[in-house]
Design brief:
Elements (H helix, E strand, L loop, with lengths): L3 E3 H5 L4 E7 L3 H14 L4 E5 L11 E2 L7 H4 L3 E4 L1 E3 L4 E3 L5 H7 L2 E5 L8 E2 L12 E9 L7 H4 E2 L1 H8 L9 H11 L8 E5 L4 H14 L7 E5 L4 E4 L2
Parallel strand pairs: 2-8, 2-10, 3-5, 3-8, 4-5, 9-11, 10-12, 12-13
Antiparallel strand pairs: 1-14, 6-7, 13-14
InterPro entries: P-loop_NTPase, YqeC
Protein name: Selenium cofactor biosynthesis protein YqeC
Length: 235
């Protein structure tokens, strides 16, 4: 890829609460983006409004007050209530505005996709925190071309949304149509990121998705690798 930018350079301009939704790399974005922002001297909080596995190596607590003193002073913190039955964190007991007041950036995983590349949202999703400054929609390029029922979380909702059969391939154009129909991103500060797009074929699919989105929503589209923290702007 040419004109590569970094995940941290994409995240840094918009402070406050960022809700990360979709599939295919949300947890990686939180972990990688949070660490990179903190290494630049920013105070960062990671959390979820639904459920997520704790970020490895990072202490967590339900509230800011419950964090250990050394963790409370750290540039990167993690907040959430532990769900004993799953080992996942749920939403913090701390109000979102209090977390935002204590950190430069708050990265929030705002829905679940069960590890699948794409997501169709129910009427209860995503759980966008109050005061959210931007929404980032993540899609996984590994799902393009495979049957909808294999790669979309809640494929029946996707079927109903677009009037397609769930055994149809999840083409870039269909995924773009789903993003537009749900209307969850589209403000200028929002982003769409196609993750896992290092291979030439995946880059082609990501560009097709960007081409389908550009006439319909007013926000940038990036593609690349969240794990490597390297992306290229497509639109």
């Amino acid at each position: 890829m040419s004109d590569i930018t970094t995940l941290v350079d994409i995240l840094e301009p918009i402070r406050g609460i960022t809700a990360v939704i979709g599939g295919g790399g949300k947890s990686t974005l939180l972990a990688r983006g949070g660490r990179a922002l903190s290494q630049r001297g920013h105070r960062v909080a990671l959390a979820t409004s639904t459920h997520m596995l704790p970020v490895d190596g990072l202490a967590y607590a339900a509230t800011l007050e419950e964090l250990a003193p050394e963790a409370r002073r750290a540039p990167l913190i993690q907040l959430g209530c532990l769900e004993a039955s799953t080992g996942k964190l749920t939403a913090p007991a701390e109000p979102w505005d209090s977390i935002a007041a204590a950190a430069d950036y708050v990265l929030v995983e705002a829905d679940g996709s069960r590890g699948l590349p794409f997501k169709a949202h129910s009427e209860r999703e995503p759980q966008i925190p109050s005061g959210c400054a931007r929404v980032i929609y993540v899609a996984g390029a590994t799902g393009f071309g495979l049957p909808i029922y294999d790669v979309v979380h809640r494929p029946q909702l996707f079927r109903d949304l677009l009037g397609v059969a769930i055994d149809e391939p999840a083409s870039p154009e269909l995924i773009a149509a789903g993003i537009v129909a749900e209307g969850l991103v589209g403000m200028p500060d929002d982003l769409v990121i196609v993750n896992q797009a290092e291979r030439p074929g995946a880059q082609r699919d990501a560009r097709a998705l960007a081409a389908a989105l550009t006439p319909l929503i007013d926000c940038p589209v990036f593609a690349g690798s969240l794990r490597d923290g390297e992306l290229v702007r497509l639109a």
